[in-house]
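Researcher: I've been going back and forth with a colleague about how Bifunctional protein FolD might be arranged in three dimensions. Neither of us has a model we trust, so I'd like an independent prediction. The organism is Glutamicibacter mishrai, in case that matters for your notes. Sequence below.
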Amino acid sequence: MTARRLSGKPVADEIRAKTAHMVENLNRDGFKAKVAVLLATKNEATAWYVRSIERAAAQQGVECQVLQMPEAGQDQLVAAITALNEDKSVHGIILQTPLPEGVDTAALVQLIDPAKDIDGANPLSLGRLSVGQPAFAPATARSVVEILEHYRIPIAGQHVAVVGRSAVVGKPLAQLLLQRDATVSICHSRTAQLADFTRPAAITVMAVGRANLLTSQEVADSSVVIDVGTNVDEAGQLVGDVHAASVQPKVRALSPVPGGVGTVTTALLIWHTVQAAAKVCESIMWRGEPMTTCR
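Model: Here is an independent structure prediction for Bifunctional protein FolD. You can compare it with whatever you and your colleague have in mind.
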């Protein structure tokens, strides 16, 4: 048996199509969606990722403003986020990590207006998500669900093992899966006997950041494995948390690294931006204010 390849490209294409439709509707009403990215590092890998957001936004007709603030201090970043919150032309805010040493990241993400928090960074967004209230989930976590749903992999009633407990993937993903009636086990790097949780699981999601951690010994026959890991091996190649060579002959389906979850994440960030713009502009039109208010 060879595992079905759960490529992210068709999922991202589907998201881009509905984004294009909404952008067309917004433009017809005289509105322009806009995302702002705060970049406070000289890290080239991070800069490459931000450029990919810029390209994705441009392709979808969404304005993207990148605030280059290398080695900015706490006060400068607080002022920048506050200004973006107040800027009615900005509908989505991304505080790109890593941030300069000594900066209080937790304090900064709490400043992001939840209505503009398109990557679910503010703890308030995670709290709302946990009780089923409207909120933007972190794009990487939501990408996992988008892949499962696109390929019509059943979630309701299934046991899902989520390996990773970060606020970016593991915790919000668990909430998204619970909303879809899955039974969720949350594991992490210190879970004893990881296989006791992953072997019985119909779906295993790896998001712990350890290269090749999951092997064929830890998965059941005909299960589905989603790899969220992004690690660089000794040869300088990008690899996931799953040892794909050993797992692939055993499982029913596997998402690749690269080419899986990461492909969907950027498309979702632009989709979230357009959704945020639509909510603001619907409110403005309902109040009868000038259309230029959110342009």
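Researcher: What would you highlight for our discussion?
Model: I'd start with this: The mean pLDDT is 92. After that, consider the following. Residues 261-287 form the longest helix (27 residues).
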